[in-house]
Amino acid sequence: MDIKTFAEPDFDSKKWINKAWSSSGNQEKEVFVANTVSRLQLYMKQLTNSLDETTTQLLTSIPRILQDASSLHQEGAMLQQTLLSLEQKVEDVEQRTGNSIESLQRIDHLKSRLENAASALREADKWAALAAALEDILEAGLPTANDKLLELAEQVSAMTASLEVLSEAPDYESKRLQLEALYNRMEAAASPPLIEALTQMDAERTATYMSLFVGMSRAISVCRCWRRAASQRLLAAWCRLAPPAPPSLTRLITGDAPRQVEWLVNVLKVESPVGELLRLYTDVLLSLDPSPTKVVTANLKLCSSPEEGIIMLMDLRRDIEEFVACIQAIMDAPRQTKEVLAAATAREFGRAAYAPLRELLPRYSELQTALLRQHLNEKQLQNTENLLEHSRAILSVAERCEGWLETAYNKAKKIAGIAIYPFYVPAIENFISSITSTIFAHTRRIEAAFLSTVSAGETAGVLSHTFPASLVLETAVAVLLDTVAARQKIEIEEEEPKSSNQLSDLPLLVLEADARQQLATLRSQPQSPAELWRAKEQLRTLARAILRNPIDVLLDEIPQLAAWNNNDALSTDLPDFALSPQEYITKIGQYLMTLPHHLEMHLSEKQAPWQFLAEVCTHTCDMYAEKVLNIRNMDALGTKRCLTDIVYLSSVVEDLGTSITPSLKNLEKSLRAAAPPQE
Asked: What 3-state DSSP class applies to 93?
């Protein structure tokens, strides 16, 4: 039995008894209670005995504890007294020796000042001797032997160290200026032989001169001399190329770059070899004569066709990427110490490398525009006599535009990736503008032919040659609009591969700030060809006008018909069934009924005939209601005849799958209300 349960603060005797009883099984209550009481009494007895033993032990040990505590108290008092005595003695010693320590400190400080003064005097004598010796060397001329140069380097290092010792001397500034002047003369004398050694790639002599410049704390001057020698060597090699071209430059620098990195690391001991190499090649690219840009521009002028010029620009980018890839491989090569390359250094090199492409990108717009406009020089487009054939030729061009634009965009990406967009879009806009001008010119010819027919007193309509010509041309415009929208969606959704490499960020390398801003605008807000939309709306209006022309001619006759008034009384009494539709409305009905068959001959699959029919029927009903309202002095028989015509027109419209308009319904109601009742 676990007696810890009885010690818990929330012990409940009832719960404990019930729990004990539930675990008793089938045992009888009296037997279970007796056993449980016996066990509890036994536990109480054991607990009482344990408490008695513990109390006895405590009572016997308390006197001994009290005695030990008293002893500890006495020992503590004695220790406190001893510490107070020791503190007093320490204070006495400090008071007696304080003055002595201050005296020793003053003596030590005086000794240090005397030693520094003596050292300064010795360094001043040494400085004077070294300065005189260096002056004599400069007067006699810089030695060329390696051992003499090494001795000179040791002297220079000694002078630099001596000047540091004399930093507290009153004439330190004059000595510093003197040493600076000597070092300037020595650098001027040592630079030409150093450049010669660097040009000849003489590692031993270069290392000797390197120690001399390091002694003068002018190691950066060695890098400048190295850059000058290396650039002169590369510029001379460029001039020897026959003829100079970007691929030749790539091969030249590809062979030169690894040697230069090895030279920077092992001989010049440069901490940032890649940065120095990029600065060298940046200077070289900007100093080449003739520059790669001039070379490529001259070659571009020799191209016999726009397509050849675009291919040349694609080759130019490939050549530049090979050159940049060579440098990138050197940048990514593992080294003992990881070099942190400045972003500005890499960006300046990249812009210098891509300078020819950056300068020629505006020419791409001209080439691409000329190449696309060549497609508009087909013989079929020159045939302006047959209106329908000319419209079909324009439709053929529109249907092929998707392939032309896709090819143009794929080639454009090979020239400058996504960065080509500010130059690609104007070329496409110029091409679309040229097609739009052709469409507008042909639209004016169709409209002129239509107006000529109307002015000659003839009707146009669905059988006129101007109607299919306008429909086909409208289809061509719709195809062009769909093509432009689809291309814009594809081009905008296509993203350039993301890269943390700065030499792969073409928008930054080949575009100026305003062009980069224009790039972002073009990709976020593509421009819709507004003129093309205007051409579509104009053609739509023209086609509907041609189609409705026979109806409009017949409707114009309505107000002048003699059947509306001046009827005799006998004729007025005729019943409605005796009246038949008049000739003008039957002609309109016949024309409407023939439209479905004729429209199917001219409409494409996307242009459903019912749309045209619905528009023509709506126009006919509205115009008919308007013309009837212009009739003056309509008599009773005229009203009956008009109602008969309306009923006929309603049946024709319903047969074509539509219904009359509200304006005509209201007119019919008004006429029936005004008509005399039948007897």
From this structure: helix
